[in-house]
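re: ur question from earlier - yeah i can do the single chain one, its not a big deal. heres the input i used so u can compare w yours
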Amino acid sequence: MNASTQARLRRGTRVAAALLPLAALVACGAKPVGGSAGASAGASAGASAGPSAGPSAGSAATARFSENGVTVTLSVSDWHAARGTLTAVFTPEAKGFHLYSTDLPPTGIEGVGRPTTVGVTGALGAEGPLQAGAQVRSVMVPGVDSPLPVYPDGPVTTTLPVRAAGTGEATVLLGYASCSTQDGCTIPVSDRPVHLRVTDDGLAFAAP
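and the output i got, formated as tokens:
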């Protein structure tokens, strides 16, 4: 066996050894609903999906990540003349959990709750307010005098009209918190960034 072959075998062994712990973690799959520091770090490091479609006119760019008990799926559609619609679907991962209204104050009501938010910066700007495709209902929480505006349990789809301010890098900033009337709340997420590229041909989410 020559030196070149031996070197390739050693590299293959190191790669296989590195992948074994990752495979074990994926197989376990368990994550606390509250989102521990380790779980959040894992979501930030590897949950964002790369572009599923190239930056071509008329085709949607998509990305997905999971953090603190919620999976968020992003897409850009109807892209024409540097304008389009950014859609964010927020899906609580546990049954019986809901999200808060986009109209909730930034610090909640009496410190309880966080609004569902979608914003854009860089080469992409908003052309109108964020809209949610779900009816708001009110819930009372022990220790809070005022009702909290929330969406029904389960996924919530939001849309934001956007326009390119040129080509270059852009960032989507997302915020949310999920709660259950029986099981409490997950750790709020604030200004969670997802990066994308704006080109002359359209948009594409950046690979992690």
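The mean pLDDT is 77. not sure if urs matches, ping me
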